[in-house]
Fold this protein.
Amino acid sequence: MPKKAQNKAAAWDFIKFLTTTKDMQIEAFRGYDAFPSLIEAQNDAFIDQPIEYLGGQKARQQWKLAASKIPAMAVDKFDPVATEVVNAELENVLEKNKDIKAALADAQAAVAKRVRR
């Protein structure tokens, strides 16, 4: 959410409503193929319907199986900072032939510096 957003409380309530309400997740799933994060919403019969543009496959069943194998991860407010720094160093390795050990060391130092601000 942008820092300068004018209606943060309402926006947060809306986000919670969309992400924690089974019926809303099923509606988004049926209307937009937005795969639901709530496991109970993943049990809707819509998951068993074939998808024409995928040759009639029941791909949503495969999506459900794949999603069930994704482990839960802790999220930190500094994750975007680390992602940005690591991606920049990866580009240095791939595009500018930077030494991998040097890139990792630089990334570690840059993340540490940026999260201390």
In short: The helical segments are 8-20, 22-32, 59-68, 79-96, 100-116. The chain has two domains: 8-68, 79-116. The mean pLDDT is 94.
